[in-house]
Amino acid sequence: MNKKAFIFDLDGVIVDTAKYHFLAWQKIASELGIEFTPEHNEDLKGVSRVRSLDIILDLGNIQASQDDKNKWLIQKNEDYLSYLVNMNFSEILPGVTPVLQYLKENNQGIALGSASKNARPILEKTGILSYFDVIVDGNDVTNAKPDPEVFLQAANGLKILNENSIVFEDSVAGIQAANIAGMTSIGIGEASILHEAQYIFKDFTFMDMSFIESLIKK
Questions:
Q1: Are 174 and 64 within 8 A, CB to CB?
Q2: pTM value?
Q3: CATH architecture of 5-15+88-217
């Protein structure tokens, strides 16, 4: 059987930590008098922490010193981490674990490609760290999506060519990064948002194992 690289984003694909990011950013925005809605949060998906803060400050037309920005970035991460303390396997999104099991049983390469700097502790807390052969996270890359660096590193770590790599993403920037890298892009979420993806599923429960099998045989 062909060996492919299956590369998963973390937030919104494997676990729904996006809600915790939203709550932490919303708290900062509220303290600054900025209205920050779930719609605004879409613009932060797949984006680095530093760039996310700039987007929020732009919403409120706020100019800030680097010292203030650093303070808010630390505060945001501390708030976010406080939400993660009680994470467990129940946080894994529906349908993800059977896909990981199928890929592992069929000797496929499995990697994480995430902007999150907290990826390892999240995978540990949810009990699925052992599925991943390679983990590339925000500590390993310098360029944020849509730059494909995170996915290129993941495929390289698995020693599998880009054209034999499949990426699961829930953000526009992530889909664009996969496409730029010449990888198969699979959007997890709303078709209206992720229309640049080659395939789109609302979540993993809508994905037959026959579809995964067809990707392996492709």
A1: no
A2: 0.85
A3: 3-Layer(aba) Sandwich (3.40)
